[in-house]
Design a protein that fits this description.
By secondary structure, the chain is an alpha+beta fold. It has 11 helices and 7 strands. The chain has 2 domains: about 160 residues, Jelly Rolls (Sandwich); about 100 residues, Homeodomain-like (Arc Repressor Mutant, subunit A, Orthogonal Bundle). Helix content is about 50%, strand content about 20%. Strands 2, 4, 5, 6 and 7 form a 5-stranded antiparallel beta sheet that branches. A two-stranded parallel ribbon has the order 1-3. It is globular, with a radius of gyration of 20 Å.
């Protein structure tokens, strides 16, 4: 697989394309992609997401992605390195702790693929993007500082959206930070059966297996196992919408014992069977 390298700590540019010119690839940097016009499909780690004007995607160095353009699209990219963002967190250490770095930058592929779902936050982010673009292209006194502060605001809006499931805000509370890190870890590695073992999650976060189960239940209202299943079922919805895999294949991919077990859990989750969900998605498309 092709890997693109970038050695600039921060870069901003736009492309207007009718055909996506870059094969499936990874980077050595982080990337925010803003859809300013157009629509199509975003292929991200073997999962397809429809994109449209106003969407924002956060791509990490571990992600493999490409686009299929249906209507001419204007993409605006903000590329940045881990070091750039770490330095930004250090500058703003009174507002946020460096321990939240993983929480903000870990991609959550189960959240409809888009980094920001709230409509008002989307409007704010695109307004902030215009400020960043102007200052980046028209360097003047204090441009660097304006870019840093504005970009930080963009990342905080993304962080707020990524943690909306549990109404968790990014604050200096160590308990909240640890919870966000654990949940982000689960969302990222939900299909890795080895990393999802209770003892391995506990070791990753320096907690005992018994305590981490109590800890998750206390803060979220559901058990760790229930949270893992919830994330798998959200991913199942996307796979059913794609129709690339049948129900047996989806059950196997998500690590369920068999299709009947998967069917039962999905029906409890959505109120309808996987096959009925897939049919209803087609009829509503």
């Amino acid at each position: 697989m092709k890997r693109f390298n970038n050695f600039h700590p921060f870069n901003v540019f736009s492309l207007e394309l009718e055909i996506w010119e870059f094969e499936l690839h990874q980077h050595n940097f982080y990337e925010l992609i803003f859809i300013e016009k157009g629509k199509g499909i975003h292929l991200l780690n073997e999962i397809s997401f429809k994109y449209k004007k106003g969407d924002v995607f956060l791509i990490t160095p571990n992600d493999a992605h490409e686009f299929i353009i249906e209507n001419k699209t204007i993409f605006t990219f903000i590329k940045f390195t881990e070091l750039f963002f770490s330095n930004l967190l250090e500058i703003n250490k009174l507002l946020i702790s460096n321990n939240t770095f993983e929480t903000i930058l870990k991609q959550d592929h189960l959240n409809e693929g888009c980094a920001i779902c709230d409509k008002t936050d989307k409007k704010h982010v695109f307004s902030l993007l215009k400020i960043i673009q102007h200052e980046f292209l028209n360097t003047s006194i204090l441009s660097k500082e304006i870019i840093q502060k504005t970009f930080f605001a963009v990342m905080m809006l993304i962080a707020r959206n990524k943690n909306s499931d549990f109404n968790s805000s990014i604050v200096l509370d160590k308990d909240t930070e640890r919870l966000n890190s654990i949940l982000s870890h689960i969302r990222t590695y939900v299909l890795d059966n080895e990393k999802m073992k209770l003892k391995n999650i506990a070791t990753q976060f320096h907690l005992s297996p018994n305590y981490i189960s109590i800890y998750i239940k206390k803060h979220t209202g559901i058990s760790l196992q229930q949270y893992v299943i919830k994330m798998k079922l959200k991913l199942a919805e996307k796979l059913l919408e794609e129709k690339k895999l049948n129900i047996n294949e989806i059950a196997t991919k998500l690590g369920f014992n068999d299709s009947s077990h998967f069917n039962k859990l999905f029906k409890n989750h959505r109120g309808i069977s996987p096959s009925a969900f897939s049919k209803s998605y087609i009829s509503n498309s």
